[in-house]
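Journal club prep — side note

Before the paper discussion, L.F. wants everyone to see what a predicted structure for a comparable chain looks like in token form. Sequence:
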Amino acid sequence: MGTNEKLAQYEYDKVPNKEGFSEKTDSPAKYGYGVRHIQLVIFLLCLTVNIIGRAHMGVTIVAMMSHPKEDTVILNTTQVERQNYTYEFNSTGIAEDGVNDMALRNGSIEKVALANTTEKRHQTYQWPKYVQEMVLNAFFLGYMIMMFPMGMVCQRFGGKLPLQIALLVNAVVSIVTPWVTIWGGWKAVCGCRILQGLSQAGTYPGVQALLAKWVPPNERASLSSYVYTGLTVGTVVAFQMAGFLGASRWGWPSTFWAVGGIFFLCFILLTVFGSATPSDHKSISEEEKNYIMGHANSGGTKRVKTPWRGIMTSRPYWGTLITHIGSTACFVFFFNEVPSYIHYILNINVKNSGVLSSLPYVASFFTSLAFGTLSDYLTNKNVISVKNARRIFNSIAQFGIAFCLLLTSYTGNTAVAVSCLVVAMAAYMGIHTGWMLNHIDLAPNFSGTLMATGNTMANFVVVLTPIVVSFVVTDTTNLVQWRIMFFIVAGVSVVSNVIFLVFMSADIQPWNYAHWNEPILEEVKLETKEEKEKTLTN
């Protein structure tokens, strides 16, 4: 029996797949709108809501802080509220601690706001900057710790369960956070955010695993890019919603309650209407199921153990992993440090402008859709191969953000620098049709595991990035030091993408197959090696 005949016995079976559809397809050439689109809308909502829960804290924490310049003085009653304390005046107009209302009137306090009625105010805090940073980063501590285990959950139970865990845990934690904060202060908030990060670690691996099950290869780039717009939509919604609710009469607690309610509604939606695979869905037609997954296999399937030996010795995967780490480090640096550069060097605070903060995400929403649609169009029309499509769009992302970094470091024009923020984020969406989809190309069975592994390693690099920045940029007003740092990060982005271009592959790898570890496949590998040696000898 020849090599091809032996391999034919071990056709790839998607897992977990109760009905045994194989990648070998007898499916129709095209199938219109159907159940898969409804499922992808649900996955999009899940991703969007998770991003809202992750991103709103950057704005909410501002509303949680007390600002002495904005304290309220009530002059038509005998109370003055200042810096979270209530002063009761006696008949002589002297408060218990010696503060008198004439001192408040004559401008001894920097700013006094008049009011005709006493209005209940939510408790605010005076946490120092380092505490605020700890609160903001607590989420990512939990996120990093649980990333790899949640990847294993995806592999064992599919992509739906990790999303359910994230939605339910975040719903409960968000709702109770205001009361927990009153009890435990900033440490309690950190604990809540760590819990949210732990539960959300399975978000991207879960979405990746679901896309591998629900999206047929000829629609992979376009439909996946639609789902991944949840990153940009969620960020914009989080910023605007947190700003509106934080400034409203309900105060910052209403942001947590609103986010918790949205999480809970999305959890119900996913639980009732979402399915991990087409074979699990009760009302999908056989025609659409065949279109997505291929023809029914007469044989049964089994759950497959993660082929770590195959993964860790795979050159194409290492190419994808390296660009995963490099692009993530570059992106995090760009959005964490470049605004500081613009603030200290160009004297404009981008983070404090709602319009400027949202512009990059608005631009990236449209480019994400455009890249995905264009990629599928070019590959389906055989203009370019899938392999080259992944290379091109990943290069747009990583070369684009590197170029914007270098341009920013040499411009003294504020408009150009801010434009670089917008263009960089818009170009960065190319990764959605680049290395992110390449996980599914290499191993549809293990795409969630590959994503989780890459995110785990990338997060370690992200943690080290601020240390490198503090070592290089010792003076935040020194242009030369910033420029050196920009060159370092741009170099990381370019080099990691070049490695991706050289080593990547768009073919399903042998270790993705269910029978990779069985003796017959070892025999096939041996025969293949012997055939190559004979060819070289001849």
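L.F.'s comment for the group: Confidence is low (pLDDT under 50) at residues 1-28, 69-120, 295-302. Keep this in mind when we get to the figures.
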